Each structure stands twice: as structure tokens, then as C-alpha cells.
Amino acid sequence: MKYESSRGKYQGLTSAEVIKMGIAPDGGLFVPGFIPQLTEEDLVLMQDFSYQEKAVHILKKFLTDFSSEQIVNCVNSAYNDQSFDHVDIAPLVALNRTTYIQELWHGPTCAFKDMALQILPHLLTTSSLITGETDEIVILVATSGDTGKAALAGFKDVENTRIIVFYPEEGVSEVQKRQMITQEGKNVLVAAVRGNFDDAQNGVKQIFNDRQMGELLKAKHKKMSSANSINWGRLLPQIVYYIAAYLDLRQKGIIKKGEKINIVVPTGNFGNILAAFYAGKMGIPINKLICASNANNVLTDFIRTGVYDRNRKFEKTISPSMDILISSNLERLLYELTGHDAGKVSFWMEELKKSGRYEVDSLTKEKVQEIFWAGFCDDEATIKTISEVWQEYAYLLDTHTAVAFNVYRQYVEKTGDNTVTVIASTASPFKFAGSVASAVLPQELRQDKDEFQILDLLASYTGLNIPPGIKDLEKKPVLHKTVCDKDEMKEVVLKFLE
Ligand SMILES: *Cc1c(COP(=O)(O)O)cnc(C)c1O
């Protein structure tokens, strides 16, 4: 299997090379040259596999320069009972005969990003080994919350790597902040930046583009890399759980051979739903992929009209991990749907950069609409959905998954479709306890309580357990106290690397 850039200037690279590089130097994203197929024999064979065995079988088709043993090691180091609190890793929960929730948050930080960030460090160090790389890899992350902690948990004490996470001092929830500043590990640094997420993100970008920094690191035998979802090594592991969900449904006899399913995904950067698209292209029968957005509904408009327009107000919502106006991974979808037309994709992406807007041709738009259905809902509807689903099914949704559930209801109402449907649940409700509590707990109980008291309250009221990654967080020692200005970030990095 060889990989190529969606802007056309890089071709014929191995998976180890593209995982190490992260983003293509021509500004594009790396994609596989073709999409490997799962035959009916593959599917029947995999049906009785464990999650780990399914992951190995699927990863082998993409990572052809890795040895079997290397893939098994990566998978077993990531998906085990020390990191995940459920044996199925990504369990399916039935709400009724046709609606299933796939819980993707049983990893150490209680958000779906663990599914990829638990394995990415192992894919990356193995890629270094395969390509003969001896430099230490330094991962720089700017985070608005979930990615930072998931990356820290994944890279903690992984040999020949260091990780530095910057978060906005005033931009993350109390639980998210505590999760990060209590992070253990010899190779980790967490620092608060005075400012908002954009300040932290721009600071990190500047460090990446700083020539002097690059040379200093080179002299120290170090190389910077990124852990965000433009890296193929983060997208690939996400394909696995959609195939696993389909196989679980088949194994339980809920669907028959060849029967199609819908998949609903609460979407931000378009990484998670793109993995579902790839699962479909590999051979999972899919009726519709339903793309759910919050008030930042740039993707809803794109899927309905073929026009992508980021020139709009940025809305701060109670599903913050989906507050995004540029969905980077859409570029990979367009590259697939245009039959790998790098010229067209480059043109649209240039338009986006220049004017914040592009419009795809009518054939591409038709192809998008054949596969995707899209909708959005605001914060009020999100809270109402959490409350309704709790009353109807005694199932507690987090704010992101509630957006997906709401949009799925809109879809059923509009289409009357009763196809078996999997809704991707991207976070534990305890991770966003404040908002979730306001949907299900009486006001008298909640008033004057801080975020940690709300956690306990929510647990006792619903009878659910606080997941290990969040439990007793306020009692853990604070290990990271660095606070810096935006223009001090480079110094912070250099000091840590000395
Ligand atoms: C990151 C995230 C999303 C959005 O996923 P994308 O791959 O960026 O579309 C949704 N929900 C939660 C909880 C997240 O952390």
C-alpha cells in the first residue's frame, strides 16, 4: 500500500513515512492510494474476533510495511484492560430495536479521541523504527480540551518521544484542566497560555514554522510532529470501530448479510465521520452517513448546498469539541469523491484560504448527497434531548452525542427511514457534567455546587459510576503549574527540551 498527498505533489510513500510526517509538505493530507476491500469471507471470519483481533486484521491491509508482529504489538499496547474500562473496548448499547449507541469513551480520558490517541504513539515509534529515524519525536499540541489530555495519556512515558501541551488559561472546563495539570509521566509538559484557544494554536503554529527552532532541535537530535487528526495514524484506528459495530450487529442477528445500516456522527473536524466513510468504502453496507453539527453548522450547509463557507460567527456551545469552522478532513473526502483529482481539490482549498469559501461542482455535490445527510441543533435542543432520552430510555447522553441523537430524530421524521442505526457516542456524560446535570437534575440540587460536587451528585442521582479517568480528580496532586504569555511559548519549549 502506497500513500499520496491530496494536493498531488507527493506519491508512493509508505505508511511509516506518512505517519511520521503527519501532514504533507505541499499542504495536503495523506491518503491511501486505493481503499482495500473486505470480502464476505473477511467479514465472516472477523465476526467472532475480539476487538483487538479485528483491529489487527484491518490495520494489516493499510500498514503493509509493518510486520505482523509490529501491528499486534501496537494494537495490544493500546487496547487493553489497563487503559479501557470495558472488555469490548467500543461496546454497542441497544436503545430499541433499530437504534444502537456505540460508546467510544471507555478509554483513559473518557472521550473518543482515546480510540486513536492510545495507538498513535505506538504507530509513530514503530514508524520511526521502520524508517531508521533516530531523532527523538517532540509532539506539540494546542488544545481546547479533549485532544490535549488524550494525547498526554497516549504519549506518557512512550520511549523516544516527548509531549508538550498548551491550553488556554481561560478556555477549558475545570474537569478538563484538572485532567491535564495532574498528568504524570517523565516526558510530558503541560502549560497554560494567557489568552484563548486561537492564541495557543497560533503560538504552536509559529513554533512549527520557526526556522531557528528547527535548527536548534536538529542539533539536539529532535524532530517536531503533530498529534491532531490530519495525521493518517489518527484516522486509521477509527475505521476499526465502525466495522466492529457492523460485525457486532451481524453476529447478534440484528442485521442479515448485505443489510445496510445508518451511522450518525457528531462532527467537528470531520475525522470521525470520514472514518465511517472509509469503512463503507471497504465494504460495510451503508445506507446513510448522518453528519450532526451544533450551532457551528458549516457542514450542514455544505452537505445541503455544495457551498462551504466559513465566513460566519464562531459560536461557543455546550458541545465545545465540535466548535469548529474549518473541518480539515473534508479535504480527504473531496479527494476520494473526485476520483483523486488533486487539481480540483487544490483549487478549492486555495479558494478556502483566500476567501473562506468554495463551491464544489454539481457531480461532486450529488455524490456527497448520495452518501451523507446532515442536520444541526442548538444548545437548548441539546439539553432537551439529554432530558428526553434519559426519561425515555434511562440512558444518559453527553452534550456531543445528544446533538447526534437530535439530528437522527430529525432525519427519521423527514425520511421515515427505519434502517438499523448506530449513533457514535463520543464522550462520557461525566466529562460534561455541568451541562448534563442541568438537563436531568432539579435546580435545587445543583445550585451553589462546583463542577466536582456536580459529578458526585450526577452519579448518585442517576446510579451511574464516575469513570476512572475523572473520579477523584480534585484529590490528585497538581504537577504542572507553568503559565506563560503567547510570546513565551517558544522559551517554555526550549527550557523543557534542555
Ligand atoms: C473531537 C470530538 C468530536 C468531533 O470529532 P471530529 O473527528 O473532529 O469530527 C465530537 N465529540 C467529542 C466529544 C470530541 O472530543
Automatic annotation (TrEMBL):
This is Threonine synthase. One of its GO terms (molecular function) is threonine synthase activity. CDD domains: Thr-synth_2. It comes from the Bacteria. Its EC number is 4.2.3.1. One of its GO terms (cellular component) is cytoplasm. Residues 2-79 form the Threonine synthase N-terminal domain. The modification N6-(pyridoxal phosphate)lysine is found at K113.
